[in-house]
Amino acid sequence: MAQTADYEVLIEGKAYPWNKDTISVGDIRELAHMPTGAQVVEEDLRDGTERALAEDDVLHPVKLEGGKRPTKRVNFRQR
């Protein structure tokens, strides 16, 4: 039986499963196969704002609830 992830991270429009309650900038790069040192930007999909993430930022991915589609509120992308 396949194990499902507890969280989901949206990177450049693609959903990635994640099993921890936090994610680092390095983890985001690794999941999306971004180059080491690439600038990562957090986009708030509700209000259209964005901010460049610092290398030591730690973020909280979207918690998945059984049987429900997650609300896409934040996307990460390479600048």
Kindly describe this structure.
The protein is mostly beta strands and 79 residues long. It is built from 1 helix and 8 strands; from the N terminus they run βββαβββββ. The strands form 3 sheets. Strands 2-1-7 form a 3-stranded antiparallel β-sheet, covered by helices on one side. It is globular.
Give a quick set of tags describing it:
79 residues; mainly beta; three-stranded antiparallel beta sheet; 10% helix
Strand content: 35-45%
Number of strands: 8
Number of helices: 1
C-alpha end-to-end distance:
38 Å
Order of helical and strand elements: EEEHEEEEE
Q: Report Rg.
A: 12 Å
* SS content category: mainly beta
Would you tell me the overall average pLDDT?
88
Cross-sheet strand order for the largest sheet: 2-1-7
Q: Report the biggest beta sheet as strand number plus sense, adding barrel if it closes.
A: 3 strands, antiparallel
Tell me the helix content: 10-25%
How would you sum up the global shape?
Answer: globular
